[in-house]
Amino acid sequence: MWEEIAASVFALPASYVMTKVLARYLMRRGSVVPDAHKAGQPKVPRPGGPALIVSLALSGALIYLLSGDLRVAAVVLVAVVAGAVGLLDDLRTLSGPVKVALLFAGSLPLLILETYSSHPVLPFVGPLRLTIIYPFLVLLAIPVTANTFNMIDVYNGLLTGFSALATLPLLVAFVVLGDWAMVAVTLAYILVLVGFFPFHRNPSRIFPGDSGSLALGAAYGAIVITGRLEVVGIVALIPAVLNSFFVLSSVKGFVEHRSMKKRPVILREDFLLEASTDRDAPMTLSRMVLAGGPLREEDIVETIFVLEVVAVALAILTFVMMRW
Amino acid sequence: MTAKLRVVVTISVLIVASWVILLLSAFLIFAVVVPFSAPESSSALVKLGYDTAKAVAGAAIFGMWFYSFYLLRDSYVRLTGSAETPSSSSSRQTPDENRKA
Question: Smallest Cβ distance to A238: which of B19, B30, B86?
Answer without folding.
Answer: B19
